[in-house]
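Q: Predict the assembly, please.
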Amino acid sequence: MQCESIQEQISMLLDHELSVAEAQQIFSHLGTCAECAGFYSASARISKRLRRLEQSEYPSALDARIRKAAGAQRTEPARSPRYLPDRLSAIVRRRIVLPIPAAVAVFIVSLGLGLLLVRSVAPGFLPIEKETKIVVAYPPVEVVADDETITN
Amino acid sequence: MTVYEAVKRPLYSFCLRLAGDADDAADAVQEAFIRLIGRAGEISGAASVKSWLYTTARNQIYNEFRREGRMQEIDESAIEADTTPYAEAERTDESEFFEKLLARLTLNHREVLVLREYEGYSYHEIAEMLDIPESTVKMRLFKARQSLAKMFPMKQTR
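A: Predicted assembly structure:
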């Protein structure tokens, strides 16, 4: 476990990311640990050789390919604003003005909805018609006979 | 010298070492420059432009690898058991041998090693380019070196 941590520091040492004091500690450990010394030796040689490798040859045809693709992109119509979908941005660009009748209709609907809301939230705020109960009553019917009264 | 002229070769080299395929590398370089044209004016400063190009090209390669299901993870036990690079060292030239060693690393490990060893970027710059913490850069470099050391026996380091 300790060697794992030391080898992590060896990697930093190869990248010149350690202070002189830290580097000295690592080198004194290398004198006593064959495993870490082996890792240091192999990694240092690999790094040295990797840094010596030349750049890959650049394909000459790639310049022409990029120029062609760049030319094709420049001829595409510009999109503005870029972050909005095309249809939405078109609406924004045209700055649509709502026709007056539509505005009036929206006002009336809003007013109606507002009144309904006020009525439901504060019933006493607006006069509400009294409920009319239709009561079908059957009052006693008096049938008057000649000599007696019959109550139904 | 324009940014294009200054960056195109190292960028292509980086992409080739990362992707291990000339067509993938060329596609990534083209995509990065074309996207840069689309963002003209949004990125300022040669250093930022270079860093942005590397990040974009690298992302393009990652996307391509993901699309094709090539995001392999190297099995470390297989590395230890497989002595192919060791045997190849005797019959191929040094550059080819090291390119093959690199190709055996995971994409995550390869990219930090290439950015550090070939391009000479600092931990901080690599962290910004790859949008990862510096501690992750440090750890990936260590793991990459650990894997390479396992593939590179001491008797071959003379």
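The first strand of chain A starts at residue 142 and ends at 144. The first helix of chain A runs from residue 2 to 14.
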